[in-house]
Amino acid sequence: PAAPAANFLRNQIDADLAAGTYARPDLPNVITRFPPEPNGYLHIGHAKSICVNFGLARDYAGLCHMRFDDTNPEKEEQEYVDTILDSVKWLGFSWEKEVAGNKQTHLYYASDYFDKLYEMAEYLITAGHAYVDSQSAADMAANRGNFGEAGKNSPFRDRSPAESLDLFRRMKAGEFKDGEHIVRAKIDMASPNMNMRDPAIYRIRHAHHHRTGDKWCIYPMYDYTHPLSDAMENITHSICTLEFQDHRPFYDWVIERCAEGGFFKKPVPHQYEFARLNLTYIITSKRKLRQLVEEAIVDGWDDPRMPTLVGMRRRGYTPEAIQLMAERTGVTKSDGWIDYSVLEGCLREDLDPKAPRATAVLRPLKLIIDNFPEGEPVECTSPVHPHFPERGNRVFPISKELWIEQEDFMEVPSKGYFRLFPGNKVRLRYGYVVECTGCDKDADGNVIAVHCTYFADSKSGTEGSANYKVKGNIHWVSAPHALEAEVRLFDRLFTDPQPDSGGKDFKLALNPASKEVVTAYLEPGLSATMPEDVYQFERHGYFVADRVDSVKGKPVFNRVVTLKDSWGK
Ligand code: ATP
Ligand code: MG
Ligand code: MG
């Protein structure tokens, strides 16, 4: 693979390595982290962050910590922890590292730091850097002020550290109800940066936590927890998306104050922000994705149309394709949109050399070769992969009755149509040349079977075949031998490239044709397919055996992507 492209993060790391910024004897010089909140399923946007963070650790022989930012007891669940870990592993990354024959596990939970975070909050209060505020939520919001105008100090701001500390301890002991008091950093209510106007650091929540149970009824805020977790873990480069730029001053402030208190030694972590991945034709808001699931617009979080990693995996996206997209779209400082076709292009690039070829008839129509001998079928062969002869051949039978695609016959051909119509000859791919002689229709005039005759000396791969020059070349499967299978033809879930931007109602942009289920006929060898096997069905695209619904001998296929980018054309 090509060397990774330079970007501002790599430049920063290179500069830090050259300057020895994080040259510590017992720790790697580059430690990043991926810090999801376990409140939902990971999506393709998270994959970008995973690839950036784990990718930098890999390329610089450093470490990437897998950390759960689990400070919101009401929204978090073990189920989400499990699926997130699964998805990161599936993407090809690991938080385990072998060092001198020992396995290190770099899996962390912010909730494991609750004692330490509490201790640091007591320190900040004692040192006069934080106080307990007892304003109502409404007063607190009003006094925070608006952008462009100074806020007002809380009447509780000058409480003595001793009084605040006493209240904080009683908050912890469960003496108060949710919202009665809150701990705030004492910074500057006139700061032009709203995040510096005495941000909250601890709140009361009488709620059960998925890991700490009922031990706590106060929980640290994300903006307080995140920098301190980074510092406790000796993170060097704390990489997040641009919307956190305004949070950086508080990130630095809280680490600096706690370092003064002796909790950390220098060097401390620094935060860097890059542009989030915005892909067209998808939505990534957790709330809206949940709506799709709860309103049964899709069939669950792992519906193959979902941009979740569990959905994309089921759809047949590969970790390699997602990593390629992450690399190709780069790391920048300005927000933009990436066309979904970039991801599909990476997917085709990854699948083309891997996927064995196979034949599938998705919209079947009977073709009867009237002069074909009854009895034993004839064997046809074709390469498993046209570019890799070493992968061998596949063998499948041809017989008197075949399935072909409905679109490969026209009773009255349109201009430029080279496939089957009465009087025309085509090649049955890897088989014989046939000449169409007519068709059968039902009472309503629908074509129900096509008739033809074949030329016994025209078989592909035999000498005689060279005497036949035909323009059309169609695929087929032998009707008595074919494997009948459910095939799901997926398309984009939305018709609008930015379905939820600018306050639009994303449900108005749903693509009514995003899922079609057909009964297809497949080449018989496909009965040996295992879940998650991927094939290229010639002319139709790439298809994966559904990992949930496939059973032995009876695969169910999902179309991963078509062969060419035909969207909107
Ligand atoms: P929430 O809406 O609950 O805040 P989130 O999308 O921020 O969800 P987190 O679990 O907090 O989800 O995200 C984990 C990490 O993934 C964060 O560092 C976040 O910046 C990053 N991330 C999320 N979406 C994207 C995206 N579209 N592009 C790049 N990184 C992303
Ligand atoms: Mg978040
Ligand atoms: Mg978010």
Automatic annotation (TrEMBL):
Domain of life of the organism encoding this protein: Bacteria
PROSITE patterns to which the protein is assigned, alphabetical: AA_TRNA_LIGASE_I (PS00178)
SUPFAM superfamilies per UniProt: Nucleotidylyl transferase, Ribosomal protein L25-like
An example Gene Ontology CC term for this record: cytosol
GO MF term set: ATP binding; glutamine-tRNA ligase activity
Residues annotated for L-glutamine binding in this entry: 69, 222
Domain Glutamyl/glutaminyl-tRNA synthetase class Ib anti-codon binding: 355-454
Residue window of motif 'HIGH' region: 36-46
Listed InterPro entries: aa-tRNA-synth_I_CS, Gln-tRNA-synth, Gln/Glu-tRNA_Ligase, Gln_tRNA_ligase_bac, Glu/Gln-tRNA-synth, Glu/Gln-tRNA-synth_Ib_cat-dom, Glu/Gln-tRNA-synth_Ib_codon-bd, Glu_tRNA_lig_a-bdl
Domain Glutamyl/glutaminyl-tRNA synthetase class Ib catalytic: 30-351
Listed EC numbers: 6.1.1.18
Subcellular location per the Swiss-Prot or TrEMBL entry: Cytoplasm
Subunit structure: Monomer.
Similarity annotation: Belongs to the class-I aminoacyl-tRNA synthetase family.
Protein's recorded name: Glutamine--tRNA ligase
Lineage, broadest ranks: Bacteria, Pseudomonadati, Pseudomonadota, Betaproteobacteria, Burkholderiales
Gene (UniProt): glnS
